[in-house]
Write a structure and sequence with these properties.
The chain is α+β, with helices and mostly antiparallel strands. It has nine helices and nine strands. It has two domains: 67 residues, Winged helix-like DNA-binding domain superfamily/Winged helix DNA-binding domain (Arc Repressor Mutant, subunit A, Orthogonal Bundle), CATH 1.10.10; 168 residues, 2-Layer Sandwich (Beta-Lactamase).
Amino acid sequence: MLKMQVNEPYPGTQAVLRAIALLKAFSDERPQLGLAELARMVGLNKTTTYRLLTALESQGLVARNPANETYRLGPEVISLGGRALRASDLRSISRAELEGLARATGEAATLETLVGLEVLVLDDVSGAHLVGATQYIGARWPVHATSTGKALLAFLPEAELEAILAAPLAQVTEQTITTPDVLRRELASIREQGYARAVEELEVGFSAVGAPIRNHNGQVVAALSINGPSARLTPERLAEIAPLVVAAAARVSEQLGYK
């Protein structure tokens, strides 16, 4: 169930937060949900849930399938998401570096940021190979199983890092690090070398190398990565590519005001 903490300093706040909770209930795994499911997931009764869904539907934020009475995210969400991406300074500043990394390595390049216990793909550029990575804009992956996620974790304030490590670390593949102490040791190494690797930790046959991006305050806000099939991105190849990714991330950081 999605838990809502509602403080209502202004009239209507509760209704807005409830509507947002309904929109967030949809996922890649569950793109369509029925009224009863949605009510249960957000902890509301069906009458209130239906009223909110009707309002969201009127604005195109959800769409109802009359054939089976299920709901999905509507076209206006896509439009809003596109506007948000276009308004992102980080994304626009990073684009040229992603394209440069993809050209230099022949592999896919991505820009990712931390959202809760996951990394979110903000942008990606395909490589030159027909068979490449399976990343796409809007995808989310477990933070501890990715090169970008580990690059982000390595530079988090200690309290934030410990809060993430307190949650169960899912075993995505046999190579995924699921023990907090082992992950802490790897994060210490990442801080020393300035980049992170993930060799078949997210997906068998898939490897990546990522480096952190800092803003004007020195805070790590995102990470760049090169990723692709392990057959091409061998440990030796990852070591060759790592300095390119680190340099690209440093140039983005400079443009964000980091000195």
